[in-house]
Amino acid sequence: MDTILITLPITVFFVIIGWWATHVLSSKRDYKNELRKIASSLICELEALEAISIQYHTSSSREVQLEIQITTKLDRLDLKLDKLTKCLNQENTFWLLKSVITMNNFREPNFHQQDCDSKIIDSITTQSGNIISKIYIID
Question: ∠100-101-102 over CA atoms, to 5°?
Answer without folding.
Answer: 95
